[in-house]
Specification:
Layout lengths: L3 H19 L5 H23 L5 H18 L1 H17 L4 H14 L2 H13 L3 H21 L7 H18 L5 H26 L12 H15 L1
Helix pairs in contact: 1-7, 1-8, 2-7, 2-9, 3-10, 4-5, 5-7, 6-7, 6-8, 6-9, 9-10
């Protein structure tokens, strides 16, 4: 079932939001510690995914080239600007529900993890990335609901729709790609996704601030290089 990862992700947000509604009196110290724990888990997963690559130099080159493209296009800045626009547009009324919904939706959707996980689900049926994202989003939903209210729960709807559509689109494209080429593509995407996961985990843990979204073009560059190598 290609949408299983997105379904689990959406359900994790619902469960986390319900738990957050019960645990509204969590201290700021507890919220901070749990959030950083989620980040450390992301770091571990990123390391595990990235070290499996047999073409690490190619992955590194693609990431660096992708970073140059991403920085020139200001992908991270544009995502943040879009998020701020939505927040001003829908949360300006002062409604706690609207603020919770918009804030949570931005956190769960605007980033590279949702894209990478949805593509992997559609291409290979491997939901590990979205399962991991589900765990991270579930705990984040607890923290957000405790602070912003039940509006966070309804962010599960755009999360499912957004990731589900990407998954379906990827599953259609995969039908036109030979199996050997797909194996190479998935290995490369998994490796570059692992490095991006590492950056996301470090950001969540507060270790550093890496502009992870600007590496997204690296996935397309890596795919282009692998396809060229395959047909040459």
């Amino acid at each position: 079932m290609i949408l299983l990862g997105s379904i689990v992700n959406g359900l994790a947000i619902v469960v986390g939001s319900l738990a957050g509604a019960v645990l509204r009196n969590l201290s700021e110290a507890t919220k901070d510690t749990v959030t950083k724990g989620v980040g450390l888990g992301g770091i571990l997963l990123g390391i595990q995914m990235s070290i499996k690559s047999e073409s690490f130099i190619l992955v590194l080159i693609s990431m660096c080239l992708g970073a140059m493209v991403g920085e020139s296009l200001r992908i991270e800045d544009r995502m943040n600007q879009f998020g701020l626009y939505l927040e001003r547009r829908f949360a300006k009324s002062g409604s706690n529900f609207a603020e919770g919904f918009v804030t949570a939706s931005l956190i769960f959707l605007i980033g590279s993890m949702a894209i990478i996980g949805a593509v992997e689900s559609g291409v290979s049926g491997n939901h590990q990335t979205l399962y991991t994202k589900a765990v991270m989003d579930g705990f984040m939903a607890i923290m957000l609901t405790a602070s912003l209210g039940v509006g966070v729960l309804f962010s599960s709807i755009p999360v499912f729709l957004y990731q589900g559509l990407i998954t379906i689109f990827a599953s259609v494209l995969i039908k036109y790609v030979p199996d050997p080429l797909m194996d190479e593509l998935m290995a490369g995407i998994s490796a570059i996704g692992g490095l991006m996961f590492l950056g996301i985990g470090m950001n969540i843990a507060g270790i550093t601030k890496i502009r992870v979204s600007n590496y997204l073009p690296g996935i397309l560059i890596l795919a282009a290089i692998i396809i060229c190598q395959y047909y040459m």
